[in-house]
């Protein structure tokens, strides 16, 4: 019989619609503005403290919707966004340094929906609020670090060939090596020149020494600086992923800056600490008593600066060789970081330790920092950034046996320190230090205004489409409008299930989708009209309209889908948000415009004798 679906198709459509409704529902429950109180350093959060904090907020006329607490944290759900900052300041004043108070946004999805895995859509920075960082990459430090690595490799090369040298120095874009005489310098230059052909070499007179200067070419400088930017972007993206921030933006801005946007992040201090961390690790052997002073360095312990140790200047491996890192506790209940090295790092570690059993090996924590000072330049007081490096020994342990690609780091002060160190090692080290030059916090109130304007635009667009379809196609316009509403529900559900992030460009994609969603029905209905004008019976005209318009509908939507996929693959940030919404909208439009609308037509008039069709 014409215009009748088999039972399984009706059941399939029903299941999809029910699932879509369930997974779209959480978006009707907006997140609550909240403040999060967390304890650290072994402190606990007593119930009496929580009540005292709640009373203080009430006295300040700040309405608290609900408090959720345990031994280590408490979440105060507030009724108004405007109260968040004031509530945080009040609570922070009442607690000491053992507690951290941060802004938060708490989900309010009902428990029965959460049990089904339903959750609201992620909102982008322009809707949910968050933080925007502009980071400056220290290009000179990138060159210095590369020269330091080359200096270490050259010292090992000279020692392996028994060529004596006195000192190595890194200055600007050059590396200088001092030798006792010109013969040693000549032999070293020939050897080094074969291994490091990208340098420009120059012999200099150092008074009592013969000096060999190695300078980077301009091409090498440009390549190192470009690598520093790209590697830092990769590392920052890994760190953002570790933070669990959805649809974060990390991209280059100009020749030496990186922009980082973190939607939904309210604890800006924690985000800044992790994103801006420039720490790395170095593994070095302890110096022997007879080691020349030029090959050693004195470094203090990180947790006790009164203690120092003599270590070799040459580095066995750095944190760049770490493939994975996790935290646990040692046999004494103290935090430790479990390290896995990559293939090259494991080989270097094994070569260094198997011939030095019984010798100490130091794990050195290196942090590139900056301090600002007000200085006079051209008669004006300006802020000048002065970079400096902090080095500290985390642990100095005796090598008991040859190490491979697995070992552990102990001597950490707290589990928090261990977690952050493991995070930084997993995400990779920076190729050059970065400094914060701009920081902007976008509050949820601004995001709420964007959401309200976006919802209004969707409502206006949908209303205009609904009115047009009713006027143009009458009863069939009702079918198209019901399919359109179903399409919006399925689109929201799909974005929620996939964890896609909704931004203002994404809302524009939804508005565009609603306008395009009725295209399929327009093609179908116009085809039905043509068949009726050609004197075809009504049921056959309906059947022909759906069947013959299918190819045109599919071709038109596939070309648009292809463009959306290209936008997603080459775009970043807002462009990706628009592409995701558009792609999902095309797929849901095909389903509702063809299957859902036809199911409604089949159920209402399918197989019935009709003399006139209201279309």
UniProtKB/TrEMBL annotation:
It comes from Modicisalibacter muralis. This is Protein translocase subunit SecD. Belongs to the SecD/SecF family. SecD subfamily. It comes from the Bacteria. One of its GO terms (molecular function) is protein-transporting ATPase activity. Forms a complex with SecF. Part of the essential Sec protein translocation apparatus which comprises SecA, SecYEG and auxiliary proteins SecDF-YajC and YidC. Gene3D superfamilies: 3.30.1360.200, 3.30.70.3400, Multidrug efflux transporter AcrB transmembrane domain. Its main location: membrane. One of its GO terms (biological process) is protein transport by the Sec complex. It is found in: Cell membrane. GO terms for cellular component: plasma membrane. The chain crosses the membrane at residues 454-471, 478-500, 506-528, 549-571, 577-601. InterPro entries: SecD, SecD-TM, SecD/SecF_arch_bac, SecD/SecF_CS, SecD_1st, SecD_SecF_C, SecD_SecF_C_bact, SecDF_P1_head. It is a multi-pass membrane protein. Residues 303-432 form the SecDF P1 head subdomain domain. Residues 2-103 form the SecD export protein N-terminal TM domain. Residues 438-601 form the Protein export membrane protein SecD/SecF C-terminal domain. The gene is secD. Residues 229-286 form the Protein translocase subunit SecDF P1 domain. Part of the Sec protein translocase complex. Interacts with the SecYEG preprotein conducting channel. SecDF uses the proton motive force (PMF) to complete protein translocation after the ATP-dependent function of SecA. Keywords: Cell membrane, Membrane, Protein transport, Translocation, Transmembrane, Transmembrane helix, Transport. HAMAP family: SecD_B (MF_01463_B).
